[in-house]
């Protein structure tokens, strides 16, 4: 009997709890110190790159009047989404992932989960708006110049923010408890967990609203855009011999529009690549009685967060004017000499 008691006591001592003074506390995830330090280093680097990179995009578009265009105002709002994700969501997710516990209480857990869903939904709706903008600019250029204004774009952006915030906060704080449409943020089994659980119908709704419908719209529009762009390219190649000066400028403008569409399509593909694994897991998991381990979900979360880090890198790599703007801003921050402040060559 004594040996059995000692073994049980030893096993209990080996388990760390999130809140040792509370009876119903969750067990804390045990990790080696080296692994914890490596996780913190990786996640902190990702957060800093996300915040600093997207701040560069916001400052560049705000500061340079040459970048003031309807499309870039959508991009500045998208950068604001990614920056807010890096400031208000990712640091707390980092603590939860590494420590294996949620120390910030039930109410802030709901706010955190709501912001997480909101920023993800706002991101894909922004990308959907960008695809619509590029479709109108390339497929209907004359109508685009007369009908699309900065004010219209700002109204669309405000509607997206309001719609996504209403959807996400309503989903989390409504506490719907229908058997199929169940939404929970805290696991009832123990204290110290912050896990958003979505039932079958809830998972399908989130998948459709936050991914499938806007993703399908984007895919169809970009297929149409590239079909029209190839058509324009063939027409331009046929007229190369007799191109006039003003036609040459139009051709350069069209090439710029097509390159913008191509780059933004890459942004969309990176977004889908980063978020599809998590969204698919969230959709399938309720039908499998929630068998996916929490650590797997945390890894998928961070894979999705990494999308916010990638966007500024894509802009800098594919957009010459963004690259120039970033160099000018960084040079001013560090007091370096600037040879030129022109973004576009005349």
Automatic annotation (TrEMBL):
Predominant localisation class: membrane
Bilayer topology term: Multi-pass membrane protein
PROSITE patterns: G_PROTEIN_RECEP_F1_1 (PS00237), G_PROTEIN_RECEP_F1_2 (PS50262)
GO MF term list: trace-amine receptor activity
Superkingdom assignment: Eukaryota
Cellular component GO terms held in the UniProt record: plasma membrane
Transmembrane residue ranges: 37-61, 73-94, 114-132, 153-173, 204-223, 264-284, 299-322
Record carries keyword Repeat: no
Entry-linked Pfam families: 7tm_1 (PF00001)
Statement: the UniProt record of this protein carries the keyword Cell membrane: yes
Subcellular location: Cell membrane
Keywords carried by this UniProt record: Cell membrane, Disulfide bond, G-protein coupled receptor, Glycoprotein, Membrane, Receptor, Transducer, Transmembrane, Transmembrane helix
Gene3D superfamilies in UniProt: Rhodopsin 7-helix transmembrane proteins (1.20.1070.10)
Start and end residues of each G-protein coupled receptors family 1 profile domain: 53-315
Family: Belongs to the G-protein coupled receptor 1 family.
Protein name: Trace amine-associated receptor 4-like
Organism of derivation: Chanos chanos (Milkfish)
Species lineage: Eukaryota, Metazoa, Chordata, Craniata, Vertebrata
């Amino acid at each position: 009997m004594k040996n059995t008691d000692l073994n049980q006591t030893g096993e209990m001592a080996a388990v760390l709890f999130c809140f040792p003074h509370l009876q119903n506390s969750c067990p804390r995830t045990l990790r080696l110190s080296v692994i914890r330090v490596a996780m913190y280093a990786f996640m902190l680097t990702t957060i800093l790159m996300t915040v600093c990179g997207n701040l560069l995009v916001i400052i560049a578009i705000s500061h340079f009047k040459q970048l003031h265009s309807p499309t870039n105002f959508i991009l500045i709002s998208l950068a604001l989404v990614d920056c807010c994700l890096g400031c208000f969501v990712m640091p707390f997710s980092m603590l939860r992932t590494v420590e294996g516990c949620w120390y910030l209480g039930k109410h802030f857990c709901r706010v955190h989960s709501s912001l997480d869903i909101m920023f993800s939904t706002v991101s894909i709706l922004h990308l959907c708006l960008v695809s619509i903008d590029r479709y109108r600019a390339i497929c209907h250029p004359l109508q685009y110049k007369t009908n699309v204004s900065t004010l219209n774009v700002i109204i669309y952006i405000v509607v997206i923010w309001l719609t996504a915030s209403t959807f996400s906060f309503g989903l989390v704080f409504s506490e719907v408890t229908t058997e199929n449409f169940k939404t929970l943020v805290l696991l009832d089994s123990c204290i110290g967990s912050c896990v958003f659980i979505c039932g079958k119908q809830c998972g399908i709704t989130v998948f459709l609203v936050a991914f499938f419908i806007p993703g399908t719209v984007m895919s169809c529009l970009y297929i149409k855009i590239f079909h029209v762009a190839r058509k324009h390219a063939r027409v331009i190649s046929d007229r190369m011999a007799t191109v006039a000066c003003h036609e040459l400028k139009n051709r350069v403008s069209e090439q710029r529009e097509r390159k913008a569409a191509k780059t933004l399509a890459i942004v969309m593909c990176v977004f889908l690549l980063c978020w599809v694994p998590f969204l698919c897991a969230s959709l399938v998991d309720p039908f499998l009685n929630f068998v996916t381990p929490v650590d797997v979900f945390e890894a998928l979360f961070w894979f999705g967060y990494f999308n916010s880090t990638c966007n500024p890198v894509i802009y800098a790599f594919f957009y010459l004017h963004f690259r120039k703007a970033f160099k000018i801003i960084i040079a001013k921050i560090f007091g370096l000499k600037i040879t030129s402040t022109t973004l576009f060559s005349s």
